[in-house]
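Hey, I'm writing a tutorial for new members on how sequence and structure tokens pair up, and I'd like a real worked example in the thread rather than a made-up one. If someone can provide the structure for the chain below, I'll link this post from the tutorial.
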Amino acid sequence: MPLSKNSSQSQPKFAVPLVLITIVLIYLLLVLFIPAIAVFYQAFHLGLEPFFDAINSREFWHATRLTLIMAAIAVPLNTIFGLCAAWVIARDRFRGRTLLLSIIDLPFSISPVVAGLMLVLLYGRNGWFGGWLDSINFKVIFASPGMILATMFVTLPFVAREVIPVLEAIGSEEEEAGRTLGANDWQVFWRVTLPNIRWGLLYGILLTNARAMGEFGAVSVVSGSIVGRTQTLPIFVEQAYKNYQVQAAFGAAAILALLAVITLIFKEILERRTHIGNK
């Protein structure tokens, strides 16, 4: 009898995790895995030759190059900004600190389309700075500068938001010890702070890069979606699908997914090399 009682008590404890795991797996299948598999199936189900034929166009390669350029400019700039902002917010207590945190979080809460319209309002032909930009013959909206600004806006918070908790968790004791031993601020950052925040910083950079390459709403508003000039890969996918170029649309979508996979592989390699170096 005691055995049967214990068995009946252990069943609910085992059943709850099993139910939760099942729910998580079903959710991931429906939301993540099946849609991703469907994209690759549509891109490759006719074979490799139709896939390469579909993406072998000047518009596709221009969109790919422009997407990489957007990420190459936005990621370093937002990394520097995120590190500076995280350092100030984590190490100093000043009036307006909470407000500054809220402002950094604004891109999370504002619709990307609204962000694009804000840039049009400022830098468009009839915008606040439109007349001055026309006078110096510098085009922002419907050109690369506007697309870079839109990408920087939507990817602004990621590095800061990943690094701030890490800086607050490690505290400033090690940095103060380094200064006591005669290290200057740059040496303290490079030899003490950076090794401690490297994983938070790396995750922030990865998230920034993923969002920069996949951003559609804000970039679509400020780019004008001009074929062969201001088309990024997400815009190329949308326009190809609307024009019934299904193979090209899913081919470009597969390339975007592969870029994300390459980013994850790069992160994994860095993690392993760092672990080996620490041993």
